[in-house]
Amino acid sequence: MEDFILGISIVMALLAMVVLYRVVYGPTVLDRIVGAGVIGTKTTILLCLMGLIYKRIDMFVDIALAYALLNFIATLAAAKFFRVRKSIMPGAKSFKDREMGR
Amino acid sequence: MTTTLSILSAVLMIVGAFFFFTASIGMLRFPDFYTRMHAAGKGDTLGAFLMLSGMALYNLHAGFTLVAFLVSVKIMLIAFFIFIANPTACHAITKAALDAGVAPWTMKEGKK
Amino acid sequence: MKYLILFAALFTLWMVWSGIFDAFHLSLGIISSALVTFMTHDLIFRREIHPYAFQEIIRFLKYIPWLLYQIVLSNLHVAQLALNPKMPIDPQLVKFKSTLKKDVSHVVFGNSITLTPGTITADIRDGEYYVHALSKKTAEDLLNSDMEQRIAHIFGEE
What are the φ and ψ backbone dihedral angles of C50, each rounded to 5 degrees? Predict the structure, then answer.
């Protein structure tokens, strides 16, 4: 079973690599933020898996919760920041306003 | 009993890893920001939930003590938190993109 | 009453997270739970607790299995699209008006839309929903579904 958990951890790390492509080459800033959020979720899972491997799950679970909270707040803060700045697509009107003719 | 628990948790983890895999592939392959949000917001939520449930079950296999039970409850609390937080973050980012003017990809533009 | 509920919830969480049950740690938990209760009581419960709260919780718990089923369906939908080499999608933005009134039902409805197949909530403004759908069919499914009635039923808004 330990080997199985190690295998799952390796799979998760590889999937994080796949998403890293989106973080590096994402066409807009928001793509990068989403990619970072997805990697953060995977990291939460990875922390719990490491706790199972090292048999100290009682300690790692607290770290995982703190990481999940931080990840959520970081995503929200980034979304708020880039919504205010309107700097992702220079010159573009808000799509909603264009649609509604406002 | 313990083998049944181990097998059940292994199945849960494999299914969760499968949904994570499809979410990552979707992140790579979908054509624009909004469709990528579909993959990130849904695949991650269910994948994390299944993975964490598998771990909470596996944690109980060594013996049903109070400490092990509390740790399992903590793991399920993380799962519950991700369940609420992930759609909310997804919604916040989509709203930011809509306000900032990221244009959605449509069928016509794709064909052009 | 609402002080007591908040305090009990916080103290239960404290006991779960600390996992140590001696007098010192429990008294620390009581002190910090009381402090947080004092500081955030007007933040957590915006409206007064009314007699239907218990009924709402029961109805919400009944709603969860249906939601889990929808989540599994939507994940299979995304998985099938992501693994399909042709990727048959036709994304579009849909706008519709909802009759829900309470804030909490808007929250539950928005999150439910995000978690059901092929649709995510993009914006909610004055009861108007902007929904991004992966295809025409999923958008029509959302507009024809009885999810809004279910949520109105949970929070007593018929």
Answer: -110, 165
